[in-house]
Amino acid sequence: MKCHLSIGPDELARFWLGDLAERDATTLEDHVFECTACHEVIHGLAAIASGVRVAMAFDRLPPLPTPERLAELRASGMRLPPDFPRRHAGVGRAVLRLRHAT
Questions:
Q1: pLDDT tens for residues 33-51?
Q2: For residue 69, with 0-12 CB atoms within 10 Å meaning exposed, 13-18 middle and 19 or more buried, which class applies?
Q3: How far is CA 64 from the centre of its chain?
Q4: Distance between CA 20 and CA 14 in Å, rounded?
């Protein structure tokens, strides 16, 4: 399912983290209540946040991989997207914010 307005996960993450201007946030909030695809993304972000909080409570949150570690993982046969972790930067920023918020 896709958003008919083509709102991407980065913008939804910014909304969820409270990084949008109030006017933009209000407009997007109204949209999220109407758009099943965007609502599912927000629901997924909340699930990730919950998992991060649980992992942090048990000191089980692994560090973000360094470029050297990513090279090792690729060399060992792990398939990662060519643009990883840049494509996933929105999630990384959310994780870092959650780490500092608790």
A1: 999 999 999 888 888 888 7
A2: exposed
A3: 13
A4: 6
User: In sequence order, which residues have a C-beta less than 8 Å from that of residue 55 and are 6 or more positions away?
Assistant: 61
Burial class (CB in 10 A: 0-12, 13-18, 19+), 15: buried
- pLDDT score of 94 more than 80: no
Q: Which residue from 4, 2, 5, 32 is spatially nearest to 16, judged by alpha carbons?
A: 32
Q: What three-state secondary structure class fits 23? A: helix
For the whole model, what pTM was predicted?
A: 0.54
For 81, the token pair is 């997207």
H-type helices in 4-64, by residue range? Answer: 9-17, 22-34, 36-57
Distances (CA, A) of 4 to 13, 15, 17, 41, 94: 18, 18, 22, 14, 25
